[in-house]
């Protein structure tokens, strides 16, 4: 199974995700360039490649090492557990800020 290095469906983020700043955008471009360079150099070997996507819950850029033969994720930065924690913290923060609290601040 061929794994596409850039999947537009994986790059989308929800509208209520954290906005991306200019510095985040520049850092993301550097990561994407680095991922493409590693894949072209075959530094990881012939059976592996790096991919990148945007996490739909947090809006963060995620880099994964993928097994080209079966599509399995071998490694991921940031780890899935950290992405889940970040999403949960964001949800809790939204729940604790009520409209009345936001208007009185």
Q: Can you tell me about this structure?
A:
The chain has one domain (8-97). The chain is built from four helices and three strands, in the order ααβββαα. The protein has helices spanning 8-11, 22-41, 80-96, 99-104, and strands at residues 48-54, 61-67, 73-77. A hairpin with a 5-residue loop joins strand 2 (61-67) and strand 3. The radius of gyration is 17 Å and the shape is flat. The termini are far apart. Residues 1-17 have low confidence and may be disordered.
Main features:
105 residues; alpha+beta; three-stranded antiparallel beta sheet; 4 helices
Write the layout of secondary structure elements.
Blueprint: H1 8-11, H2 22-41, E1 48-54, E2 61-67, E3 73-77, H3 80-96, H4 99-104
Antiparallel strand pairs: 1-2, 2-3
Mean pLDDT: 78
Q: Helical amount among residues, as a percent range?
A: 40-55%
Main sheet: which strands, in order across? Answer: 1-2-3
Uncertain stretches: 1-17
Strand count: 3
Q: What fraction of residues sit in β-strands?
A: 15-25%
Order of helices and strands: HHEEEHH
List the domain count as a whole number: 1
- Number of helical stretches of at least 4 residues: 4
Outline, from the CA principal axes?
flat
Oligomer: single chain
- Rounded radius of gyration (Å): 17 Å
Report a brief summary of the structure.
This protein is α+β, with helices and mostly antiparallel strands and 105 residues long. Helices cover 45% and strands 18% of the residues.
């Amino acid at each position: 199974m061929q794994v596409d290095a850039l999947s537009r469906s994986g790059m989308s983020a929800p509208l209520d995700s954290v906005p991306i700043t200019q510095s985040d955008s520049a850092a993301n471009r550097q990561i994407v360039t680095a991922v493409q360079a590693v894949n072209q150099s075959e530094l990881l070997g012939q059976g592996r490649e790096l991919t990148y996507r945007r996490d739909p819950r947090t809006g963060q850029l995620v880099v994964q090492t993928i097994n080209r033969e079966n599509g399995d994720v071998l490694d991921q930065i940031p780890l899935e557990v950290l992405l889940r924690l970040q999403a949960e913290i964001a949800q809790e923060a939204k729940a604790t800020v009520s409209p009345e609290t936001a208007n009185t601040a």
